[in-house]
Amino acid sequence: MTDMRDAIGVLLAGGQGERLWPLTRDRAKPAVPFGGVYRIIDITLSNCLNSDLRRVFVLTQYKALSLNRHVRRGWSSLAGLGDYFEVLPPQMRVSQHWYQGTADAVYQNIYSIGSERSKFVFILSGDHNQIKSHKHLFTQPCSTLRMHQATYDDFIFDTGIT
Q1: Sequence-distant (≥ 6) Cβ neighbours of residue 69 within 8 angstroms
Q2: Of 22, 71, 105, 117, which has the maximum CB count within 10 A?
Q3: SS3 content of the chain, % helix, strand, coil (to 5)
Q4: Which CATH superfamily hosts domain 10-159?
Q5: Tens digit of pLDDT for each residue in 111-144?
Q6: Tell me: the pLDDT tens digits for 43-76?
Q7: Euclidean distance between CA atoms 35 and 46, whole angstroms
Q8: Which residue blocks in 20-87 are alpha helix, DSSP H?
């Protein structure tokens, strides 16, 4: 059985959140507060923690200061040895542009993701509002999602990224 230590999470948390204006006037959608001290991103981060997915990159872009602070202050201390909840601003390693969408956000951070040498990568939204575990993806087939176990080189080859 596959262990979640073989996986890394990549949370896409850079959305402008135009439909939530004026709540997103000063912050990205995943940073919008709810329930007092919580933020929308806390649901997704909690799902990761409860699924034993303990190595997580949070990709930010728009108005990210409050989100960066929230993740650093509220989640970084929960990570143990070799575990992390790490905020990654746009790196511009492979492009000189802001993210052009979700696939481009992953592509622009392919070096950071690949440096972890994980067998599995979970690409998750930073603004999901449902509680669920990701462990079942290793044991139960899913009709809408196909997981491909591969090495980093296979991932690069299969996606056409060179």
Answers
A1: none
A2: 71
A3: 35, 15, 50
A4: Spore Coat Polysaccharide Biosynthesis Protein SpsA; Chain A (3.90.550.10)
A5: 888 888 888 888 888 876 665 666 555 555 443 4
A6: 889 888 888 888 999 998 888 888 899 998 888 8
A7: 15
A8: 41-50, 65-74
